[in-house]
Amino acid sequence: MRNGYFQLICSKTGTSLKIMEPRDGGQYAYVRDIIDYLNQYGIRYNSAALNKGLLDARVEGDGYQFQINDDYLSEVKEGFLLNISPNKMIAMARFYPPSKGGGRLSAREFMEELELRKIVYGVKKQEIEQFFENPEYCTDIAVAQGQLPRRGKDAKIEYFFDTDLKARPTLKEDGSVDFFHLNTICHCHKGDVLAKLTPADLGDMGYSVYGEKIKPPEVKRQSLSFGKNVILSEDKLVLSAETDGHVMLSDGKVVVSNVLEVENVDISTGNIDYNGSVNVKGNVCTNFSVKATGNIEVQGIVEGAFLQADGDIIIARGMNGMARGRLKAGGNVISKFIENAKVSAGGYVSSEAILHSEILAGVEVTVTGKRGFISGGRVSACDLIQVKTLGSAMGSETVVEVGTAPDVKIRVQQLQKQIAENKRDMEQLKPHLAAFSKRLAQGIKFDAEQIMYIQEMLQKQNLLKKSIEADSSELSSLQKMLEGGDTARVEVSGVAFAGVRICISDVSLTIKSNMPYCKFIRQDGEVKSVPL
């Protein structure tokens, strides 16, 4: 702290300096301050006399006065030195007292002086007014303060899905690794928020004490980039899914697709369970599965795998199921060939060859093309089976069924089995209930546990009876459906080999000898062959 200062004394006999000693532990005015002041006003001085006088002042005490020249000067008004920091952010003033008979500045005059020097920003009016009310000389006072620019923040995009998908096996509870279930797909649903943008904070402009604008540091700006099936909010800050599917980041764009494309289904992808359609450019390997709510299209071969689609299943190069492969489609199944597999379709099944497979089609099965044969296994359809060659000369056991939807026959078998089991259970209850009734008629009393046991058997008997009645009613309706099938048929454009069994609704026929170009229909309660 420096509160010591000096004052100029002007007289006809010369110019003197009066040195005021500091208070409360402060410091004397710096020699440099005194020299700068004298130089500013062009006051001549003798350096030796000045130095001696300053040293004597420290000995003589407060108010010591000594002459520095013999010039006659006019009285000097209160003055100041103004210093601007190199970055132009702060203006510091150091005030000097007026000579003994000189006048003081006013706060208004000082601020006008600042304006003349183009110091217009951040002028500290309150501090300046306080100084002029209670001056403290030879001390730096901040009279203007600039504003540093406020640094902003880069824009930020937050993605709500994994943007760095890599095949990572699932860890089982026992610690082993499941390579069939990999985290390779980011599923999304319509309306899901996929990404959010926090816009760049550009910061605030800074100003020097001269009012010069100072730009804040540049920040990184970003915008949300997106492709198909993605919606951008009105404020351009949120991306959401327009449809169900899977989301991915492609070349910096958020894209949603309801068709998943993979090269192969193997250990690189694991099993696929997708809400949409799946397009496999290569093959589906043994023991892997593909499930889709849309269609499944395989451009290669399907091995002993499981494919399930709510829509169609299309296999360009065919399926060799190795006795473990299965296809299940809510729509149609189209495959170049089907071998050693189980296939069910809500619509039709179309192929060039079916070998040793179980086929269930809700509408029809067509096996055409250059080969166009069904050999071995069981092929069922509701309306039509159309084939070029049925069976084989080798006598492979081949069964074809038409007339009723295959699932109806399966349900009939299930109901027949369930009714039989329930009737058996009821028969087993009868002796026990009869024995209790006899004892009750004899006046024998039962304890609480026995009564509860009787109630449980009666309740079970009642449930079995209701179940049998409901199942019998459904069975009766389904059996009437099996009795229909007047338009159901099997068409053979080549040859039907001996040994093939043909079932139409509830009747069947085993072919005794090879039959060319024929059609099998149900007529007069039996299967008959008519010309095609």
Outline the structure in words.
There is one protein chain. With 532 residues, this protein is of the alpha/beta class. Helices cover 21% and strands 37% of the residues. The strands form seven sheets. The chain has a 21-stranded mixed beta sheet that branches. Strands 7-11-15-14 form a four-stranded antiparallel beta sheet, with no helix packed on it. Strands 1-2-3 form a three-stranded antiparallel beta sheet, with helices on one face. Helix 5 (406-441) runs antiparallel to helix 6. The longest helix has 36 residues, at 406-441. The radius of gyration is 51 Å and the shape is elongated. The termini are far apart.
Topology (SSEs and partners):
Elements: E1 5-11, E2 14-20, H1 31-40, H2 47-60, E3 64-69, E4 79-84, E5 90-96, H3 107-116, H4 125-133, E6 140-145, E7 156-159, E8 169-171, E9 177-182, E10 187-188, E11 193-198, E12 206-207, E13 213-214, E14 230-232, E15 238-241, E16 245-250, E17 253-257, E18 259-262, E19 272-274, E20 277-280, E21 289-292, E22 296-298, E23 306-309, E24 313-315, E25 319-329, E26 333-335, E27 338-345, E28 349-351, E29 353-361, E30 364-367, E31 373-381, E32 384-390, E33 398-402, H5 406-441, H6 448-482, E34 489-496, E35 501-504, E36 507-510, E37 515-523, E38 526-531
Parallel strand pairs: 18-20, 19-21, 20-22, 21-23, 22-24, 23-25, 24-26, 25-27, 26-28, 27-29, 28-30, 29-31, 30-32, 31-32, 31-33, 32-34, 33-35
Antiparallel strand pairs: 1-2, 2-3, 4-5, 5-6, 7-11, 8-9, 10-16, 11-15, 12-13, 14-15, 16-17, 34-37, 35-36, 37-38
Helix pairs in contact: 5-6
